[in-house]
Amino acid sequence: QEKIIILDFGSQYTQLIARRLRELNTYCEIHPYYKIPTIDESVIGVVLSGSPFSVLDEKAPNPELSHIKGKLPLLAVCYGAQFLAKISGGEISPSKIREYGRANISNIGDEYHLMDGVPLNSQVWMSHGDTITKLPANFEVIASTKDVACAAYHIKGENTFGIQFHPEVYHSTDGATILKNFVVGVCKSKQDWTPSSFVDSTVASLKEKIGNDKVVLGLSGGVDSSVAAVLLDKAIGSNLYCIFVDNGLLRKNEFEQVLEQYKELGLNVKGVDAKDRFLKELAGESDPEGKRKIIGRVFIEVFDDEAHQIEDVKWLAQGTIYPDVIESVSVDGGPSVTIKSHHNVGGLPDFMKLSIVEPLRLIFKD
User: Fold this and answer.
1) Which residues pair with 152 in a beta bridge?
2) Residues 104-135: tens digit of each pLDDT
3) DSSP for 73-142, written as a single string
4) Catalytic one of 154, 166, 342, 343
5) Catalytic hit among 78, 150, 187, 242
6) Is 168 a residue of the active site?
7) Is 166 a catalytic residue?
8) CA–CA gap between residue 136 and residue 29 (Å, rounded)
9) Per annotation, catalytic residue among 28, 99, 128, 168
10) What's the pLDDT at 329?
11) Which of 53, 146, 158, 236 could bridge to 60 as Cys pair (CB 3.0-4.6 Å)?
């Protein structure tokens, strides 16, 4: 499976880069800048994200990229563009005014096709406090705005590009064109990663991974666990045991209605009424994060009680999706700010002694 690697420097927009690339039917993965995955023949390109850091900060991200730069197509966005310029001998200086908001392309001189189809005066979105004041000798400007002399550059002799603006956000009106020029034109993506191909490959890999083992899955009534259940049902059928817990926090009659819908889908599902147990534990707690942790803990306790009634279960399936994984990384352990805790990311107690299978772990909900 060909893929593009996105190295995350902590930008609030990093997830958007991944979504835009996947809209081009190209598989991509987000990895923290300090934990670069193995670069094998499946990697067709790399993107460097923006960052809340300044490249001038003493503790700014500073990864070793010699095994990537000049060897693979590389697109550096905002912080990434300044970082490449700085480590290559260029000069970065604080801007007199923080450049944040809309700007317009006033000059394009690009024989390398990153800016193909982008008209003069095209609107782009800037979000940076520093600016590139001197480019290294082998860098050449391929786009400018009125206030930013180097809005985009190319490194001679390499498929390496830097852009000072954010093509992934809606406000960059031709951002999708620029990303397509990179993904399809430079990286030569086959654009064959589609929803149907994902289903086929996932069902096949689940069959291979699980074999004849039994899997238990906690259904929430939501999209994520339900889609995971259907994929597993396609792969292993009756060896999937679904448990749908009524935690007392669902809408009126939702537990009964959804339980019936699950049965109509052909899922092997058991409904468990645990309303009183959850509401007793939640009594007196007003903090939202405190509530989430109580609900997660009690769910695991109820779920574990039920799972023990099934003999020889080897796997616990979860509906973890990609934003769950990304949003649960802390700013200390990685660059992306922790948004909230997720009960199905890193919350499994040791006593359950089950291997985990997560069919949707690398997928966005949409």
Assistant:
1) 143, 163
2) 999 998 899 999 999 999 999 988 778 898 99
3) -EEEETHHHHHHHHHTT-EEEEEEEEEEEEEEEEEE--SSSTTTT--TT-EEEEEEEEEEEE--TTEEEE
4) 166
5) 78
6) yes
7) yes
8) 30
9) 168
10) 53
11) 53
